[in-house]
Amino acid sequence: MEEVEKVKAEAVQMIGMFQVLPRLVVFDLDYTLWPFYCECRSKHDTPSLFPHSRGILSALKDEGIDAAIASKSPTPDIATTYLDKLKITSMFVAQEIFYSSTHKTEHFQKIHSKTGVPYNSMLFFDDDNNNMKPVSNLGVTSILVRNGLNLGVFREGLTRFSQNWDASKNKQKRRK
Ligand SMILES: [Mg+2]
Q: Which Gene3D superfamilies match (predicted)?
């Protein structure tokens, strides 16, 4: 089996192990889906993804879980050119790629209003620690990516998402 197919099969299996799943998984671009800052590169370069990114994205698609992008890249034209070159543009239901002084809360407000998905049904992967707290405060399960998206951090995300979900449901129960 090809590497992408192997990763995809493993990701599909992983998704099947969880009873509670996010409705939308949001990804940063630079150093999360791909191993570079696109502002340091030219549109004419040939981009590549981290080795597990494509398999994980296509597992989400197969399992009917939507994906979106939240990127603060100052060069959205390069980012979108690369998404096209990598043929993954159609995998995202929302693409918010713009520079902002906020820690991506503005990106998430836009994603929320475009998709209608509640924040507590979203899972977010990003390599920038500064974005973790502000986005978590919205109710999004936010996972710090240290070496690019891979199956290990993907599993951690699904696990944390279902723990957060259970914790919030228990809280509601106690209030009744
Ligand atoms: Mg990044």
A: HAD superfamily/HAD-like (3.40.50.1000)
